[in-house]
Amino acid sequence: MKKTLLFTLALLLSVTMFAQNRAGYISQHFDGETMPEGWTISGLGTGNWSIAQSNQAGGEANELTLYWSPQFNGISRVVSPAIDLTNAQELVVSFKHYLDNYSGSNAIGVATSSDGTTWNKAWEKSYSATGQYTVNEIITTPDMGKNNVYFCLYFNGDAYNINNWYFDDIEVFSQENLDLKLASIDVAGMKGAGNTDITFTVQNIGKTTVDTFEATFNSGIEGDSDITETFTANLEPMASKQFTFSEKVFYNPGAYNLPISINKVNDVEDDDAANNELEKEVLVALGETQRIVMIEHFSSSTCGPCVSVNYAMNQLTAANPGKFTYAKYQMNWPGSGDAYYTEEGGTRRNYYGVNAVPMLFFDGQNVSSGNQTTLDQYYNKAAFADVRGSFTIEGSTINIIADFMSYVQMDNVRAFVVVNEKETTGNVGSNGETSFHHVMMKMLDGANGNQIAINAGEYKRKEFSFNMASTNVEDMNDLEVALWLQDFSTKEMYNSHFAYEYTEHAYPVQNHTMTADGNDLVVTWEAPEAGTPTGYMVKVNGEVKEENTTNMSYTIANAEGLNIAEVIALYGDKSSVPTISSSATDNDGDDDGDDDGDDDNDEAIEEINNSFVIYPNPVKDVVMIQGNNINSVGVYNSVGVLVERIEVAGNEVEINMNDYNTGIYFVQVNTENGTATRKVVKL
Question: What does pTM read for this prediction?
Answer without folding.
Answer: 0.77
